[in-house]
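Budget justification, computational time. The allocation requested in the original proposal was used primarily to generate structure tokens for proteins on the priority list. As evidence of use, we reproduce two of the resulting records. The first is shown immediately below.
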Amino acid sequence: MEIIGDVQRLGLNIYDTIDTSKEVALSGHKLSQDLSSFFRYLRDKKTSTEELHEHVGSMLRLSEKSRKNAHKVCETFSNTRKGIYAVTNRVPAEVCDLADEQDRNVKKLAAGEKEIQTLKVAKSCTMAGAAVVAAVSMVAFPPALLFLPVALPLLTLVIEARELHATKKNEKREKKIYECKDAISQLEQIAEGLQKLVELNDAFASYWSRIETTLQVVDGRIEELRRAKFLGLRLSTIEKSCDEIGNAQLDYHQKVSVT
């Protein structure tokens, strides 16, 4: 089924993008540590201005790279979310096609082709089921954090060959419709989870933009900063904020790394 291939691709996109978002968050934690070090060096009169400029330059390169990656993460999450909604819109039509195929198979079975058709349907179900299981195995995330289900229940879209009985076809069709609705509901939950990830990583991207601007200003005013009154007290407050942000990004990295 084409829809299963689409789900597999969406699963790979989610997996790869989650991985990139982890790297961005880890970079955020590192930058926070670098900023804390910079503030200590700024207070230390033994540290030369040239060394401070070099340190700021290193942070600027890291922030620029991470900002670009963060924007890329947001864009990919957003596109994947749209792809999931596109799949949910197609699922009912796919199920109807399968139901029609089932009706045709039932008629052929009644005409004396039961054994051949059962083997064909069983084979197609096995292949499709394996494809879905492969897709499912790639999208297991901590649901408490990401609000994503542990698995994509798309196996319900596959006609079960062993339950192909003409006398129960109406009952089976109703069951498939119910399961289809459940599958759509699960996919919509995944899309909602992705929206939360978009918002979170968008906040990361905004953070990187602000940091980049701040570092550019700092780089041009290092001497002024060193002469500022109450420098130690002001820097201590900023350091505390940096540590909180860094810990939040490290927390994100650690939680999405749990499988």
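The second record produced under the same allocation is shown here.
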Amino acid sequence: MTREDPCQYEPGNIRKRVLYVGSGLQSFESLVKDMAVAPRTERLRSESCPALKTRGHELEFVPVWDTLGATDTLRSAYVNLLLVDLRWCENFENRAAEIRHLLKELDHDEDIEQRYGFHRIVVLVSGPDARRIDDLIIELGSVGVRYVLRQDYHEDRPAWSSDAAFAARVLRMADELTSSRRIGKTAICGAGGGITGIYYEMGVLKCLDDCLTNCGVNDFDMMFGISAGAVVTSLLSVGYTPDELMAGIAGAKGGRVPPLSLSLLRLSHFNHEDMRWRMSSAAKTAARAFWEALRGRGGDTAEKLFLEYTSLVGAPFHSAEFEVIIRRALQMAGSTNDFRKLPVELYVGASDQDARSHVLFGAPGYDHVPISKAVQASLSVNPAFSSVPIEGRYYEDGAITRTSNFVEAINRNATLVVTLDPFVPYVSKLPGVAHRRGVLYNIDQDIRTITFTRFERARNATLRKHPEVSSYTFLPSNTLRRLLSTNPMDHRPYLEIWRGSYLSALQRIDQLCHRLRGDLAEQGMLLDTSLAEVVAEQLRTTSNLCFEDFFPDRQVDIEKRPFMTPSQVEFPRSAQARA
């Protein structure tokens, strides 16, 4: 970890932070002084930066004098608004070039989720050359800056001289932009990744659950699952906690989930019926080829026979046993296997095998399908599992057509989206590592690369289109990817995967803590990593990893909550008014 102190949010902090990027102290002090005399405004006592109260809202103005100070602050503190002062000064063109560089740096952050939304940037401009300022405003708009305030220029006085009317406009816009933020729904989106992907998502959710103090991951408004993500989110949606899911896998007592075995190597998983049909078809093909050879018409019979045989090879397993496991868990007393009766919105993504299109079970027209059946369809990936028939259509793994349904979450009014994606490729620092591995390894890595780059492109484009959406994606560390890539259907290394996913999730939370805690607070959710830090230290130092290591002081206390309970989050009144 890089932080000396746990990441915490101070409840009750209603003051909005405005980061002022200016060319000098004189302009800043003059602007604040003029804003303080605006109607319905008073200056508040503050130990650090000037603060104003206007129309019942508190604004704190934090000044920095260069672009480096701006980027450092944006990457370490939660900033509600970026106020850039580009009014006329002696070195105006140099100043404009600096701001141009700042905007480019903010816009091209390698991590799209660290990009500061340009819908929360206000630029102040003025100057003696009206045409030059016109061009500047057009340039700012072309890069995505939505708000520009233009001050009348007077040659007989400097830009920092008093202008109460302009300052009142600045204050009014700052107040409107910081207080009118749209607060929509919260969503968890779980992607696919096989059995190891199920373990990964459990570990991440356990970490996030440990970091939320007044609620839990079960309190998110919507849940979207594909394949492995469908298994996890379907159980969360009725009230099972991450603790209970992990206890079921580990065979620990105290939860409501019975001991779960995700091993494929059981007779009940083999696709006997499909095998009989395909063997019968193969026998007929062989008999036909033999008869044609006897009649002297079998010139290319061997090649034809081989090609027909390969086309008859089917999936060795069926996913019916997994459907039974999910159904039994969802049909416990007080729970439900019906999308329409859930306390939260659940959507399970699957692929129509013949139409080659994505289907969202849980959405209107598909919400009558039992949850367990939808999950079975979503996880049925070829070549391991055969497709699942539902009402005359055949469905397979949802990851065939989509990596994650985060776009569907945004379309359903989500403004805070947490995405879990375990199906990512291992990145080697040394050339030739993949070349020396077998064909199955490289097929797996190629598919992972295709699905992840598809997700990245879709996410980046969507977040630029919807800058008001706060997105947080959790990916396995590169070290953990090596384990996940060994065999996505390996049910054995759940403890190691949980450890890796917990630690990498906490690292991601720490990396984006200043933004995550602010975005969660807007939703009424409070973040504190103190407990997770204790667990993480145990996981790093233990020499004999066990289930108990995932609880503070190794005292197992499995969290349970009543089935089918609505969200426990006390939504902020101000947010309720804007939702």
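A brief technical remark on that second record: The mean pLDDT is 88.
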